[in-house]
Design brief:
239 residues, alpha/beta, Rossmann fold, 6-stranded mixed sheet, 4-stranded antiparallel sheet, 10 strands, 25% strand, globular
């Protein structure tokens, strides 16, 4: 459902993404990990059609990100690291605004809201303005907007950032439950989360893919914990 081929992107002299290629199929949850500045967010923004690559391309659900960006956005749910929102809006108004943008109306809108509000546990803040929400509730609202149209593909950048342990457990359980029907990328610095929800792991550093395997195979190959494997690979530049 996601096919990435030789993606490249630079910002002036900085090469952020340097020939990244991979494929993900339905039913897979990919842990996309790397140190700060590795190029993870740039890759995800390219896949979400927020950035145009300097070279290479990708398809999502068969749609080319360069030729068919509208169709890509329709089948994609994207949770950015910093979700843009309108602070003066209530949670309910914001989700209705997202429904307007997604062309979800009538009975379909009611069904979508009735489904996603309890799933993301935001009933208690539904009538609050976004500016009054805690970081954890803002994160849950961001997750709600990425899921409201029930997309086939999800790209989640730090989905549990700011959540307490119980909330993290619930979001991880939600990702696991959705996995069989969707294609999911999870970018996180919490390696425990990768082991909990991901069936596959890509480690990226300096814009290049250094490893692509299951968490268990990586630990077996390098004879260590995932944390030790991560440090070994990203500090040696040898996969």
């Amino acid at each position: 459902m996601i096919m990435v081929k030789d993606l490249r992107r630079s910002f002036g002299p900085l090469v952020a993404v340097d020939g990244v290629s991979f494929e993900i199929n339905k039913g897979q949850v990919l842990g996309f990990i790397g140190p700060n500045g590795a190029g993870k967010t740039t890759v995800m923004r390219i896949l979400a059609c927020f950035l145009r690559p300097d070279g290479g391309t990708a398809t999502i659900c068969g749609y080319d990100i360069l030729k068919n960006p509208v169709q890509v956005r329709r089948c994609l749910g994207y949770l950015a690291e910093n979700v843009p929102a309108y602070n003066e809006m209530t949670v309910g108004r914001f989700l209705n605004f997202v429904c307007d943008a997604r062309e979800i109306s009538g009975k379909k809108r009611k069904i979508a809201l009735d489904r996603i509000v309890p799933v993301c546990s935001i009933e208690s803040v539904y009538h609050q303005t976004i500016e009054t929400l805690s970081k954890g509730y803002k994160r849950r609202l961001g997750l709600a907007q990425s899921l409201i149209h029930n997309p086939d593909v999800l790209i989640l950048d730090e989905p549990t950032d700011g959540l307490d342990p119980n909330q993290k457990h619930e979001i991880r359980k939600l990702i696991t439950n959705m996995a069989k029907d969707k294609c999911i990328i999870v970018s996180t610095h919490i390696l425990e989360e990768v082991e909990a929800v991901c069936s596959r792991t890509i480690i990226i550093s300096k814009g290049r893919v250094l490893a692509d395997s299951t968490p268990e195979d990586l630990k077996s190959k390098h004879q260590g914990t995932l944390d030790e494997v991560f440090r070994k690979i990203t500090t040696s530049s040898v996969a």
